[in-house]
Design goal:
Blueprint: E1 6-10, H1 18-26, E2 31-35, H2 41-57, E3 63-67, E4 82-85, E5 90-94, E6 106-107, H3 114-117, E7 123-126, E8 131-139, E9 142-149, E10 151-154, E11 159-161, H4 173-184, E12 189-192, H5 198-210, E13 216-221, H6 224-228, H7 230-236, E14 239-243, H8 244-251, H9 253-269, E15 273-277, H10 292-304, E16 308-311, H11 313-316, H12 321-338, H13 356-368, E17 373-379, H14 384-390, E18 398-402, H15 405-410, E19 417-421, H16 429-443, E20 451-457, E21 466-473
Parallel strand pairs: 1-2, 1-16, 2-3, 3-12, 5-6, 12-13, 13-14, 14-15, 15-16, 17-18, 17-20, 18-19
Antiparallel strand pairs: 4-10, 5-9, 7-8, 7-11, 8-9, 20-21
Helix pairs in contact: 1-2, 1-12, 4-5, 5-7, 8-9, 10-12, 13-14
């Protein structure tokens, strides 16, 4: 049985060697992430071209996720590179201070509105919450604080306001420029950082479409405001990323695991996609094996029903990018093996379906989960039927047979869905089943005599036109 949970891995210097990237794809990499916080446009173009060339050589399909940087809510730099803050000392943050003029008493910030967003009594969290300072007063652009939890603080570390409330917009001028690049690269997904509301998603989608891009939009949930507005964000986005770094800092780590489960469950019920991200195998930046806690973390996300788990620095700058893909894949398969989802499900049994292909998808999964069906074959244009099917938590593989390269790459993020290149418009109806059976038998996914469910539309080449399902027994018809 192929692995159902998908793996997203960030590209970077550690996997720029084509041989390394080729090995990562061979180990099961499904989607690559371009981190627009680092690297120039030419580097992004080169990396996308390389991964698509390698995928083609291996007969694989690999999606591309372009991750926008978002607003820089960070401190500036220190004269000596870092300082040590002591508990109880005074420390100021001032947007007008020179970029490299920080010392033990004050530092600049790239976020010019910090002094407008905070007041006495607010708690600021620095460097992913490792240091904590309490606002004592605001004097013009200068935010005066008292250190509550000290430690070493180096250049360009992040600033979070405990409980949320920073007013920085989700999209910057750099992001708008990067969206144009994402369209040029034909990125399959574009991730919006520091989302606050549905309007951030609408704006990003509009900019992407205006630039000629057809990719789907990912809402990164890392602000308190996003959690508060989660229903409207889920409604307008395509994918939710549980970005646990900044999210954990803002809402508090004690709330994070429960919130992760709630976000995944709510997103899946809305027939949208989920990615779980941040520090999933952080120790493998340097170590060749993950910690037991990391194994449990990844397995927990898989059991929650996440579509994909994401690697960041582990593959971008880590010492073992191939080994981490192999380890992540093994953990996902282990969790899937020991957590057999009940085939009989109450998912959407009380819902009214809006679309014909949506109703067909639900009927297919109900039937498959009550029969000994080995595979589901969805003849699809856009991938929507396969997406609806994949929202049912089942161990039955769904094969998206499609003639469109973009659809094949898109479904690489869908849990339990596997792309197959197939042009239905060039196949006579009486030859269709024979060709499909031959393809699945050649791939080794089914055996002769096993039952499969087949879906298609009466009108070939029409997106959203799936209106029929058949239960078939696999056989060589040649």
């Amino acid at each position: 049985m192929p692995r159902r949970t998908k793996i997203v891995a960030t590209l970077g210097p550690a996997c720029d060697d084509p041989n390394v990237l080729s090995a990562m794809v061979a180990e099961g990499l499904d989607v690559v992430r371009l981190n627009f916080s680092h690297g120039k446009h030419e580097e992004m173009r080169r990396r996308v071209a390389t991964v698509r060339e390698i995928a083609a050589q291996q007969g694989r399909y690999v999606g591309v996720l372009a991750d926008l940087q978002g607003p820089k809510i960070r401190i500036a730099s220190f004269r000596d590179g870092e300082v040590t803050l002591r508990e109880g000392q005074d420390f100021a943050i001032d947007a007008t201070l020179g970029d490299d003029d920080g010392d033990e008493t004050i530092v600049g910030t790239a976020y010019e509105n910090l002094h407008r967003d905070v007041a006495a009594g607010d708690m600021l969290l620095l460097n992913d919450g490792q240091l904590r300072v309490k606002v004592a007063s605001v004097d013009g652009t200068r935010v005066n604080t008292v250190v509550e939890i000290g430690g070493r603080l180096s250049n360009k570390k992040g600033i979070n306001l405990q409980g949320g409330g920073l007013s920085a917009p989700a999209l910057t001028d750099k992001d708008r420029d990067d969206i144009r690049l994402a369209a040029e690269l034909d990125a399959d997904y574009v991730a919006v950082s520091f989302v606050r509301s549905a309007s951030d998603i609408d704006e990003a989608r509009s900019l992407l479409r205006d630039a000629g891009g057809e990719g789907r939009i990912v809402a990164k949930i890392e602000r308190t405001e996003a959690v508060q507005n989660i229903d409207e964000i889920i409604r307008v986005t395509d994918v939710i990323m549980v970005a646990r770094g900044d999210l954990g800092v803002e809402v508090g780590y004690a709330e994070l695991t429960g919130l992760q489960k709630r976000l995944i469950n709510r997103t899946r019920r809305a027939n949208k996609i989920t990615i779980t991200a941040t520090q999933m195998m952080e120790s493998m930046i340097h170590s060749a094996i993950p910690t037991r806690a990391e194994v449990s973390d990844v397995a927990n996300a898989v059991i929650d029903g996440t579509d994909a788990v994401m690697l960041s620095a582990e593959t971008a700058i880590g010492s073992h990018p191939v080994e981490v893909i192999k380890a992540m894949s093994a953990v996902c398969q282990g969790a899937e093996k020991y957590h057999k989802h009940h085939r009989r499900t109450n998912h959407r049994v009380d819902d009214t379906f809006t679309y014909v292909d949506e109703a067909i998808a639900m009927a297919v999964m109900y039937t498959a989960n009550h029969m000994d069906v080995k595979a589901i074959i969805a003849m699809t244009e856009s991938g929507s039927t396969a997406l609806w099917m994949s929202r049912i938590r089942s161990d039955i593989p769904i094969f998206a047979f499609t003639r469109h390269e973009a659809t094949r790459r898109r479904v690489t993020l869908y849990r339990g869905v596997y792309p197959v290149s197939f042009d239905i418009t060039h196949t006579e109806s009486q030859r269709l089943y024979a060709d499909v059976f031959d393809r699945l038998l050649d791939l080794g996914f089914v055996e002769e005599g096993e039952l499969v469910i087949f879906t298609k539309g009466d009108l070939t080449g029409v997106s959203g036109g799936t209106n029929a399902m058949k239960i078939l027994r696999v056989a060589r018809l040649n």
